[in-house]
Amino acid sequence: MIRLESSDGRLFAVDQESAYMSSLLKNIDQDLGTVINPILLPNVTGTILARVIEYCVHHRDDVQLDKDVEDLLQDDNQVEAWDRQFMNVDDSTMLETLYAADYLGVEPLVDLGCMFIAHIIRDMPVDEIRLRYGVVEDFTDAQRQQMQMEADLSK
Question: In whole angstroms, what separates CA 15 from the centre of its chain?
Fold first, then answer.
């Protein structure tokens, strides 16, 4: 078992196979072993770490296929029901889970999170995306004109 401590002091014990879905945890465990026990994760709260662990435990026996994210976006039926339910959370939880997965190096969860966010925003107007996710537009007029020109050329 690999012991983890979240940023808010919650302790978790995770089986090695599930923990090794995280490249960060795998590297720490292989390089340092029991020297660091528990492994401190200052960038992940207990609530979000519990979600990432839940994902890893559920998918620990999966064979990692090189599925193209674009193919998954085109065919929603390729995403299993458990994953759909797992990602059926508010925007804040989804983004925090995605940040934690990226920090921990859980690539299948990063891919799943990105796919779900892409699915949510694909038909959304830019202003609505900015408002929903708190994206501040800080482009200069010249940069906006350049982007518009490039967009027009790509059509």
Answer: 21
pLDDT band at 111 (very low <50, low <70, confident <90, very high): very high
pLDDT tens digit sequence for 22-76: 999 999 999 887 667 899 999 999 999 999 999 999 999 886 655 555 555 555 5
**What's the pTM value of the predicted model, to 2 decimals?**
0.79
CA dihedral 83, 24, 49, 68 (to 10 degrees): -20
Tokens 């708190």 belong to which residue?
Answer: 134
Closest residue by Cα to residue 55 from 111, 6, 9 = 111
Query: Which residues is 5 bridged to in the sheet?
Result: 11, 40
Task: Spell out a b/e string for 137-148, using b for 16 or more CB atoms within 10 Å of the CB, else e.
Answer: eeeeeeeeeeee
Q: Considering only CA atoms, which of 71, 153, 85 is closest in space to residue 118?
A: 71
The SS3 assignment for 64 reads: coil
